[in-house]
Design goal:
This protein is an alpha/beta fold and about 350 residues long. It has two domains: about 150 residues, Periplasmic binding protein-like II (D-Maltodextrin-Binding Protein, domain 2, 3-Layer(aba) Sandwich), CATH 3.40.190.10; about 140 residues, D-Maltodextrin-Binding Protein, domain 2, CATH 3.40.190.10. Strands 1, 2, 3, 4, 5, 6, 7, 8, 9, 10 and 11 form an eleven-stranded mixed β-sheet that branches. Helix 2 links the parallel strand 1 and strand 2.
Length: about 350
């Protein structure tokens, strides 16, 4: 009798176990490129996998600060996009997970070098060159010359005519800061930044905001990545794109899995998904004109040709390190940001 009861209980338990619905898969995504691209990635990933995605869009500097603040109780799973320097810093500080995607073999060398430098705690997903753009109609209306070089941006005739982001919140602007230091040397770079400050009408939070303002005629010149300028040109705005005569830096937009991710399996699925050639080729649907990291991906025809630009040998290891990034940002706050107060 006891044996029959035991068998009945076991059978009931098994039926109950089979009847339980499968646990839904989820993903929390921190996204740093333009919102249109973030939305496209979320929709495509959910459609393909059925995994529900909660996405937050913030600039690179803001996202890094959030991940660091949440490190004792991580809430995000994947940080997708944004300049590579803060991703490298997050890797150095142990804020991200090591993951060697099976997609690595398909990537350009510059993307895999990013992964190697970070101990595979981040990976390159796109590249983009830095520069500045100007509103051709506004410059003509005001009788201003077209700038061609970084040093031109210190000229008196551009007083209150330029915008750039704050490097504390914007990875784009930190790349600008690190680029100028590498081109001119640190002392001259800070002299230039202080001279440029007299011509700044605003330090924005987002790296792409200055060129959007230039497109709307709210400022004459915006310092940002060239692919963000291309977006404005494609939309029909009178923006001219300048690759500075002295040379320029570039970003390797990156992706990282957050240390302690609650949905690690979903995070790895998204990571592999985002590195696929067919997915990277869809960036142009969101008017994103970065150069994709998968060698088989098709870049938009409007994307800047990085091989034709005078790019510096950007030292990602140094300028993505915690100590150097923190030191340069403090000096910027003390010597440039303080001038705005």
């Amino acid at each position: 009798m006891m044996g029959r009861k035991l068998l009945f209980c076991l059978a009931a338990a098994l039926v109950g176990a089979v009847a339980l619905p499968a646990k839904a898969e989820n993903l929390t995504l921190y996204c740093s490129p333009q919102i249109e691209w973030c939305n496209l990635m979320v929709e495509a990933f959910t459609k393909e996998t059925g995994i529900e995605v909660a996405m937050t869009r913030k600039s690179s500097g803001e996202t890094f600060a959030q991940i660091k603040a949440e490190s004792s109780n991580p809430r995000g799973d994947v940080w997708w996009g944004g300049t590579g320097d803060p991703h490298l810093q997050a890797a150095e500080e142990g804020l991200t997970e090591e993951y060697r995607s099976p997609m690595l073999a398909e990537l350009h060398p510059w993307a895999t070098r990013q992964a190697e430098q970070a101990g595979y705690r981040t990976v390159g997903i796109y590249a983009g060159a830095l520069g500045f753009g100007y509103n051709t109609e506004l410059l003509a209306e005001k009788g201003l010359p077209a700038p061609e070089c970084w040093e031109d941006l210190t000229r008196e005739e551009y007083r209150d005519e330029i915008q750039v982001a704050n490097p504390n919140s914007s990875g784009t602007s930190y790349t600008t800061l690190a680029t100028l230091v590498q081109i001119f040397g640190e002392e001259k770079a800070f002299d230039l930044l202080k001279a440029m400050h007299a011509n700044m009408n605003q330090y924005t939070k987002s790296g792409s905001a200055p060129i959007k303002a230039a497109a709307r005629g709210e400022t004459a010149i915006g310092i940002t990545f060239m692919h963000d300028m291309v977006t404005q040109v494609v939309q029909g705005f009178p923006i001219a794109i300048v690759a500075p005569c002295e040379g320029t830096g570039y970003e390797i937009g990156s992706m990282s899995i957050i240390k302690g991710a609650r949905n690690l399996d979903s995070a790895k699925k998204f990571y592999d998904f985002a590195l696929r050639a067919d997915i990277q080729s869809r960036a142009q649907e969101a008017q994103a004109y970065q150069v994709p990291s998968n060698a088989a991906a098709v870049p938009p025809k409007e994307s800047p040709d990085l091989t034709k630009l005078k790019l510096i040998d950007y030292d990602f290891a140094l300028y993505g390190s915690s100590d150097e990034r923190r030191r340069l940002l403090k000096r910027w706050d003390d010597e440039v940001g303080a001038l705005a107060n």
